Amino acid sequence: MALQCRLSGATFQSLKLATIPISSSSSRFIFRTLPKTLNLALFSRHSAPKAPPFSVLIRNLSAPAVAAAPAAETSDIKVVKPQWNAAIDFKWIRDNKEAVAVNIKNRNSNANLELVLQLYDKMLNLQKEVERLRGERNNVANKMKGKLEPSERQKLIEEGKNLKEALTTLEEDLVKLRDELQIEAQCIPNLTHPDVPIGWEDSSKLRNMVGSPRKFDFPIKDHLQIGKELDLFDFDAAAEVSGSKFYYLKNEAVMLEMALVNWTLTEVMKRGFTPLTTPEIVRSSVVEKCGFQPRGENTQVYSIEDSDQCLIGTAEIPVGGIHMDSIVAESALPLKYVAFSHCFRTEAGAAGTATRGLYRVHQFSKVEMFILCRQEESDMYHEKLIKIEEDLFSSLGLHFKILDMATGDLGSPAYRKFDVEAWMPGLERYDIKCIELYRLSEPPAWHSLSSIRITLNNFQEG
Amino acid sequence: MKGKLEPSERQKLIEEGKNLKEALTTLEEDLVKLRDELQIEAQCIPNLTHPDVPIGWEDSSKLRNMVGSPRKFDFPIKDHLQIGKELDLFDFDAAAEVSGSKFYYLKNEAVMLEMALVNWTLTEVMKRGFTPLTTPEIVRSSVVEKCGFQPRGENTQVYSIEDSDQCLIGTAEIPVGGIHMDSIVAESALPLKYVAFSHCFRTEAGAAGTATRGLYRVHQFSKVEMFILCRQEESDMYHEKLIKIEEDLFSSLGLHFKILDMATGDLGSPAYRKFDVEAWMPGLERYGEISSASNCTDYQSRRLGIRYRPSESPSTTSKKGKTNLAATKFVHTLNATACAIPRMLVCLLENFQQEDGSVIIPHPLRPFMGGVEAIYPKSR
């Protein structure tokens, strides 16, 4: 019996669907027996939940985009349509399913490979069936062109009608199947570079260390105290005006931010990057296509009321979107951009982690490098990017280490990720200066604000 | 009821007390409601107006001053969009896909030009004793309202954040005005002069049909804003100082512009007086507003709760020998645009274009662009 799920329009965007394997495979009307269950976590926001009779798969990192539009009316099952389609190579996934399965496990992803493969198979079969029926319908049409007895003609007309109905149903089923396949397959994380260590954060490998912690012969202060004494920031006024984790920069801190941005842009431009400033409000679909979750629980993304727009958490998003849906001439590659923007992050779910002062804020300036290149060259450009970062941070006299992040820490889009952790004497530990955004070909250049805090730590604390 | 009473008298008083208490509760509730309604209605009353302000609409605005004259071109000129396209300075098409109309990417020298404009402007205004700031761009909607804007109005200019009481700022005037919210400032601290750099976000709802081409009307832009809090007697004087700073800045860049004393119909609720600067934009073939300097007197400070205590208070000793503090007064606030990047780019590109397609960079900006003297067409 099909399980019907009625959903109010407003909940669709945050809906995470789980499907269970289809029990019967022989029937044409396979979708009639396919139940869908809702993520239990969502039910708590709405009316009384019914415990679904089947196990529920909960998606975290890899939940795909789903549209707000209500599903087709023709079947008992409400299928949610993906808002956009990723160009996924299903055949490759099927032909390399062992490697894909291992990768999913190493990445701690919730992607359901079995389901993807089943759906893909069913889709291929359904496609064949549709083509077969189309062939028969054409035959009938051709036969009807000749001279026929009325009874024969009538029989053909009947047959044609039946074929047309069956075809319509199958074609609708095919569309739904394709949508479901999209949704499931979008969850599959990127492949992993063979040299990436397997495990969690503590498995990350040290690539390189530059400099050493400065020895202080006097008691040192952290950046908040220094900032207070030098009248460089105001968190209290910002808490009144905006809320916690907001701040004003004042006096020399403003000049320092300007100097960092200008110097960084200049240095990176020297290395052949095109400078950009970008929109900071973008369509949520672009955010999703870059691998972020605007509507996920604990999302980092601010959304604009009454619109499909969001604030960017990094310039990676609007820069990635520049060449959206286009074919670039190979001779134009590599395309190297260095983008300056403000970034906005909700930092939901960051409570308890390091949040003091400038370390974790809702709004900050950042200069970001972004490269589009030929497939064979991305490893090489990854090395080039980390080298640029190393040069920049050394020039400023910082002490830092570069880590090759382990599989559990990569996030869905990254094939490989290098993190730079700089020594912060006031915090008495290394902490991530260039967080995240190491996607394939996309490492960041500079976290301008964290470089302010590091500079303040290192120069003024010592 | 504290004295000695007969039981029947006491009972009568208890009754009376109870009746009074009920009546009082009702009246007190009515009073609260009345105060609320009074607040709501009274908040609509606009600021007073400076006696010299012309009465009427935009065409009644009075010309205060004109600086320079329109450049004569001896070759066919282009507008900023065409210049930008040929010099590969912006991309509106990609931004329309990624974000929507009226968004844009700046590229190449336009990025350096924005940086130079911001840096030069901050430096120049700091020289005149202003404290530089960067500000939050997400603020509580109540602060937006206290500055005299309408986050929830029809055709509001304000973007709101979903599931929160927060909004995006349309100008740094808002977060800067909020710094001293609900506080009493020492008179000796005045005037407080801030120059703030921020990104600004505006919905531009209701702007359809008006000039919207290219960089002239956009949803997001960089701006350097001046903001002064001062004693009541000094706001007119600081208003003159602010417009003088703007005049100096824009003249240094070689722009031709006029300064208007805006008429009453164009002031908006908070402004006591408003000077607009309109610069000549040859590609648009007209003057376009590049800046605005407003004296809001105590309109914003009454809402933001910013007071100062006059220091020359007559100290009177009361019977108990205590010194009375002088009553606090509301500060006056003023705000003025030091540099709004997109329209400044329009002015620079259109006014300084050359026949060969290049654009000359004004001298004051060159040191802030690594010495670059002009933007040249790139040969591919």
From TrEMBL, chain A:
<dbReference type="GO" id="GO:0006434">
    <property type="term" value="P:seryl-tRNA aminoacylation"/>
</dbReference>
<feature type="coiled-coil region">
    <location>
        <begin position="116"/>
        <end position="180"/>
    </location>
</feature>
<dbReference type="InterPro" id="IPR002314">
    <property type="entry name" value="aa-tRNA-synt_IIb"/>
</dbReference>
<dbReference type="InterPro" id="IPR010978">
    <property type="entry name" value="tRNA-bd_arm"/>
</dbReference>
<dbReference type="GO" id="GO:0004828">
    <property type="term" value="F:serine-tRNA ligase activity"/>
</dbReference>
<keyword id="KW-0030">Aminoacyl-tRNA synthetase</keyword>
<dbReference type="InterPro" id="IPR002317">
    <property type="entry name" value="Ser-tRNA-ligase_type_1"/>
</dbReference>
<dbReference type="InterPro" id="IPR045864">
    <property type="entry name" value="aa-tRNA-synth_II/BPL/LPL"/>
</dbReference>
<dbReference type="InterPro" id="IPR015866">
    <property type="entry name" value="Ser-tRNA-synth_1_N"/>
</dbReference>
<keyword id="KW-0067">ATP-binding</keyword>
<keyword id="KW-0436">Ligase</keyword>
<keyword id="KW-0175">Coiled coil</keyword>
<keyword id="KW-0547">Nucleotide-binding</keyword>
<dbReference type="InterPro" id="IPR042103">
    <property type="entry name" value="SerRS_1_N_sf"/>
</dbReference>
<dbReference type="Pfam" id="PF00587">
    <property type="entry name" value="tRNA-synt_2b"/>
</dbReference>
<dbReference type="Pfam" id="PF02403">
    <property type="entry name" value="Seryl_tRNA_N"/>
</dbReference>
<protein>
    <recommendedName>
        <fullName>serine--tRNA ligase</fullName>
        <ecNumber>6.1.1.11</ecNumber>
    </recommendedName>
</protein>
<dbReference type="InterPro" id="IPR006195">
    <property type="entry name" value="aa-tRNA-synth_II"/>
</dbReference>
<feature type="domain" description="Aminoacyl-transfer RNA synthetases class-II family profile">
    <location>
        <begin position="222"/>
        <end position="429"/>
    </location>
</feature>
<dbReference type="GO" id="GO:0005524">
    <property type="term" value="F:ATP binding"/>
</dbReference>
TrEMBL record, chain B:
<dbReference type="GO" id="GO:0004828">
    <property type="term" value="F:serine-tRNA ligase activity"/>
</dbReference>
<feature type="binding site">
    <location>
        <begin position="218"/>
        <end position="221"/>
    </location>
    <ligand>
        <name>ATP</name>
    </ligand>
</feature>
<dbReference type="InterPro" id="IPR033729">
    <property type="entry name" value="SerRS_core"/>
</dbReference>
<keyword id="KW-0547">Nucleotide-binding</keyword>
<dbReference type="InterPro" id="IPR006195">
    <property type="entry name" value="aa-tRNA-synth_II"/>
</dbReference>
<feature type="binding site">
    <location>
        <position position="225"/>
    </location>
    <ligand>
        <name>L-serine</name>
    </ligand>
</feature>
<dbReference type="GO" id="GO:0005737">
    <property type="term" value="C:cytoplasm"/>
</dbReference>
<keyword id="KW-0648">Protein biosynthesis</keyword>
<dbReference type="GO" id="GO:0006434">
    <property type="term" value="P:seryl-tRNA aminoacylation"/>
</dbReference>
<keyword id="KW-0067">ATP-binding</keyword>
<keyword id="KW-0175">Coiled coil</keyword>
<feature type="binding site">
    <location>
        <position position="171"/>
    </location>
    <ligand>
        <name>L-serine</name>
    </ligand>
</feature>
<feature type="domain" description="Aminoacyl-transfer RNA synthetases class-II family profile">
    <location>
        <begin position="79"/>
        <end position="362"/>
    </location>
</feature>
<feature type="binding site">
    <location>
        <position position="202"/>
    </location>
    <ligand>
        <name>L-serine</name>
    </ligand>
</feature>
<keyword id="KW-0436">Ligase</keyword>
<dbReference type="GO" id="GO:0005524">
    <property type="term" value="F:ATP binding"/>
</dbReference>
<protein>
    <recommendedName>
        <fullName>serine--tRNA ligase</fullName>
        <ecNumber>6.1.1.11</ecNumber>
    </recommendedName>
</protein>
<dbReference type="InterPro" id="IPR002314">
    <property type="entry name" value="aa-tRNA-synt_IIb"/>
</dbReference>
<feature type="binding site">
    <location>
        <position position="335"/>
    </location>
    <ligand>
        <name>L-serine</name>
    </ligand>
</feature>
<dbReference type="InterPro" id="IPR010978">
    <property type="entry name" value="tRNA-bd_arm"/>
</dbReference>
<dbReference type="InterPro" id="IPR002317">
    <property type="entry name" value="Ser-tRNA-ligase_type_1"/>
</dbReference>
<feature type="binding site">
    <location>
        <begin position="202"/>
        <end position="204"/>
    </location>
    <ligand>
        <name>ATP</name>
    </ligand>
</feature>
